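Appendix B, record 7
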Amino acid sequence: MAEIFFSYSHHDKEYRDELEKHLAVLKHEGAIQAWHDRRIIAGDVLDDSISHHLNKADVILCLLSSNFLASRYCFDVEMQRALERHERKEARVIPVIIHPCDWIHSPLGKLRATPDDGKPISKFPNPHDAYLNVVQDIRSALTSLGLPKVSHEKPRTHGTHVPGNPAHARSSNMWVKKTFSDQERDDFIREGFTYMTNYFEASLKELESVSPHLKARLDRTSTNETYVVIYDNGLKVTQGTLQRKEHTVQIHDSEGSSPNSFMMGRGTLSLVDDGYQMGYHEGHGFGMGYGQNEKILSHEGAAEYFWSQLIAPLQRDRR
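Structure tokens (predicted):
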């Protein structure tokens, strides 16, 4: 069984968690076990535990972002040690690009990164495509290292002991209530707005490819606003400005129109949390009685909500 080591900035822990979920099949196959600093047990010496696992890992994933590059511990300690082991062919270092950053000019720039072509995960309209690409590259790395072949036998579910299982088996249910900080909320909605803009851009390209009579334009007018317009044979048929505010994202009717004009058939989503995760909900905000049984939209769900608002005029009978 290979050990995977996550080297990452704590600002990017959501990406680490999501990638680890995508590695689930490799775990079920008994091919890997994953380790990161959140596995450190209370009372352990932090640096000693990190060094121990970094020095015995078979694959070291460096989750690259400006946060990683700015972290002296990630950059000067973990990355340097990882590259030393990579040069000696003791381990395989894989740069995983999660946000646009100047990684290509770092010492990791000489290595082949994932996803393909070094496209950051956050730039994918559907990030699950990116995570699948990363998992496929990790599988290839495990094969190139000549690690033991993966067993595809169905795990035993009965009995008190399964040969080869660690004695310290544990539950994967680690969900605990928490209070999200202002920084976490700000980071979430900023990343969400970037995701939604990329989602619109990819969706417009696909719309043009399947309906050649339609032409679209997307302008990133600012870090908080994106203007979109769709033409049918040169006639403007729908337009909208996607706008990010402090704890809301909304789409309203036209470039430069009043932020409140989304009331005219368009929509707004507010940032909410249920104590476990953050997301979006229509018509509720922090401190406004959000119900835990109500559905929270992800970045993708929110992007599709706004996309549906934008193309609604195209889906009505306009004869």
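Remarks on this record: The first strand starts at residue 2 and ends at 7. The radius of gyration is 23 Å.
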